Amino acid sequence: MSKQTHGINRRTFIQKSALAGGGLVIVPRHVLGGPGYVAPSDKLNIAAIGAGGRARGVLRGISKHKKANIIALCDVDKQRAADSMKKYKKAEDFTDFRKMLDKIHKDVDAVTICSPDHTHAVAAMAAMQLGKHVYVEKPLTHNIHEARTLTEAARKYGVVTQMGNQGNSNDDLRRICEWIWAGTIGEVREVHCWTNRPVWPQGLVRPSEKMTVPKTLDWDLWLGPAPMRPFHSTYLPFSWRGWWDFGTGALGDMACHIIDPAFRALKLGYPDSAEAFASTFTENWQERTYQDSPPNSTMIRFEFPARESMAPVTLTWYDGGLKPWNPPELEEGEMMGDGGGGVLFVGDKGKISCSVYARNPTLLPTKLMKDFKEPDPVLDRVEGGIDGHQTSWVEACMGGPKPSSNFDYSGPLTETVLMGNLAVRSFFHVTGKNNRNRPQFDGRKKLLWDGPNMRITNFEPANQYVRREYREGWSLGS
Looking at the predicted structure, is the pLDDT value of residue 437 above 80? Predict the structure, then answer.
């Protein structure tokens, strides 16, 4: 129900009407409804910031809930948003989310944010400041400071939140937790996580040619708080992920999915350190500085301290075609994870592997699964599992259980993921010129992280990436 526009529910309305009329009241069919009928006053009015691309899937998932009511769509690219505009014909159309919220905020209960990474935080904060519940695609934010700020703001404004890492609602993720907590593979001190991403260009040099902005795109609004750059087709519609100005590379794109089961099962918090290797290929090696675009592949090692009764853990991340060696427990022809990536937990009594989104957890060697008796469930399941990730948020906005990837959880997860990018970007820190007058890089270094204070303590240049300066006219607020 909309707290802003409806002071009483249908039941209260009917009861009060009956009393006022001496106990006799004739209630119209559209008020009483029938089996499965949902009155307008009992719906959750939702505005979507981002209507094309990934937003289509999110809106489709949300719309499975019978109480979800999409009343507004906002997108700076009308061509990309066209399909959604046709599907949700009754939704009001906007280009600037600030104008949308200013005009219809009294009618809106909740907001989805499915824009590129660099605009997640400003859009989510604007909605939360108005008391709106928010669903934000992964990664939650473009940088660590934004993630911390949104986490704190969600508590301050008392809104329902959910990050779009849908595997977090998967039953299999909960099974992994229960296996590990029951001691199935003993004490876990080592985890490996990998992805097949990027599947877009990276290792790029910023284009210098000027191109005409399409008539269906508001380029200034698309840039939002990011630095002003001339329009170029290399940024759109999907390859913005391969530019530091707008995206967070393969790590930011997929680690909120793939690291998630380890983060929850091992009760991880802030890492103590991160150390990265990275490929050194760019499209134009004579101009390479690695300041514009993430590398084509990385390997990052995070070290986490002991937590509760759990031992310290080393978690290694691989992307761009890299992955850990197959463990000896795998039979010839058996695959670890799937084509998109996976996770390997290494315990002192055994190993567990799973695919992307925590799917199909398996003990290694796989023959152990034949006689394996799973421990009793201790975690509540999300109705619909992985397919209920969006609808569980709608249900929470209507007074149901708190979503599993709310910002108290997904905020620290995002901070951990993005801390890895500090190590990646520091790998390419320019220290001068070599004897061929080309940039000289520091290379691999172990960054020590003070999580509570969001600060690298042993390499000051890395701290410039903890937060960013916004373009004039944009701010995060508080």
Answer: no
